[in-house]
Design a protein that fits this description.
- Two copies of one chain form a homodimer.
- By secondary structure, chain A is of the alpha+beta class.
- In chain A, about 50% of the residues lie in helices and about 20% in strands.
- Chain A contains six helices and five strands.
- Chain A has a three-stranded mixed sheet with strand order 4-3-5. The first copy, chain A, has a two-stranded antiparallel ribbon with strand order 1-2.
- In chain A, helix 1 packs antiparallel against helix 2, helix 2 crosses helix 4 and helix 3 crosses helix 4.
- Chain A is globular, with a radius of gyration of 16 Å.
- The two termini of chain A are about 10 Å apart.
- At the A-B interface, helix 5 and strand 5 of A face helix 5 and strand 5 of B.
- The structure holds zinc ion (4 copies).
- Chain B binds a DNA duplex through helix 4.
- Chains A, B: Keywords: Cytoplasm, DNA-binding, Iron, Metal-binding, Repressor, Transcription, Transcription regulation, Zinc.
- Chains A, B: It is found in: Cytoplasm.
DNA sequence: CGTAAAATTGCAACATTATAACCTAAGGAC
DNA sequence: GTCCTTAGGTTATAATGTTGCAATTTTACG
């Protein structure tokens, strides 16, 4: 059983949507239909999804199907902190714990494609160690690990 | 003075070329003119460089100027372990310590664009911590930090 | 209300990055 | 030399992402 089916998707999605709505209200931003639907789709897929895949899904539902539509929605959601971009995959994925500012860090299974967010604590610890050694000021960071998840390792 | 000028470029380049040649000999691979020149260019720029920038430079020198030329050379050099790809920039940069298998990790200055390779030791430590917490098997990892380098912080 | 400013969306074109497919040329083994 | 493998040339195309501007919707405010 893939990790993506070990839990209640609908719960994931509704929680994510609630949090996003709350964040918008707090910041005076608008959760418009396209933005809402893109976030839902990102969560429904529940694994990193390309912008053009999302665009195709939107298109099937009667939304506008030009690239700027989905990229603008994604930019908004990234800014809001409810999705992450995985640059080695050119793909987007929902954030597990939105509302707490943190960097992008994922473990991506080569077999099933699921992406698991890394604990912010470990990323912070790495930052601290690096800052001590070098005199950089770290503003953002992005960590992408690949390998086999527990399930796929067991099945292999 | 930018970090890229605090040292002797020519030394960087010749060392990198020597190592690459040695690695090729050890593995029975061919360091052809295009491959050699691409590696030299990557080192000459001494900061992350896009494939199409490299292609333009090659073209000026009479090399073939079609995309596959540079992508094939870059694939070879990546495989050989003498360059890294920085996926958040879609760019390539020379490896500081080739010949020792290691993951991609860079600090990239937002101001001057220089990319400094992170110590493999710290990356390994992060891996170990994560593996203890989760039961992933990590095969590759990629770490891209941004911020200001020491020089640019001072100048700002 | 009514209107003006701001934010969002629609739309068309374009830019950038990367790959596929197929063929030719060069290098090495025998 | 002949054969086989590797590398490079060439053309076309795929995949990803952006710019610019007009039209619309939402909000702010008198
Ligand atoms: Zn997150
Ligand atoms: Zn898996
Ligand atoms: Zn390296
Ligand atoms: Zn700098």
């Amino acid at each position: 059983m893939p990790a993506s089916q070990q839990h209640d998707h609908n719960h994931c999605i509704s929680t994510a949507m609630d949090t996003a709505r709350t964040l918008c209200e707090q910041r005076g931003l608008r959760m418009t239909p396209v933005r809402r639907r893109v976030l839902e789709l990102v969560w429904q897929n529940h694994k990193p999804t390309g912008a053009y895949d999302l665009l195709a899904q939107l298109s099937e539902e009667g939304f506008n199907s030009a690239p700027p539509t989905v990229y603008r929605a994604l930019d908004f959601l990234l800014e809001l902190g409810v999705v992450h971009r995985i640059s080695s995959l050119n793909a987007f994925v929902g954030c597990d714990h939105p509302g707490h500012e943190h960097d992008t860090g994922f473990f991506i299974c080569k077999e099933c494609g699921n992406a698991t967010e890394l604990p912010a604590k470990e990323i912070k610890k790495l930052h601290e160690t690096l800052v001590k050694k070098f005199s950089f000021s770290i503003e953002t960071s992005n960590h992408e690990l690949t390998g086999l998840c527990q399930n796929c390792k067991a099945t292999a």
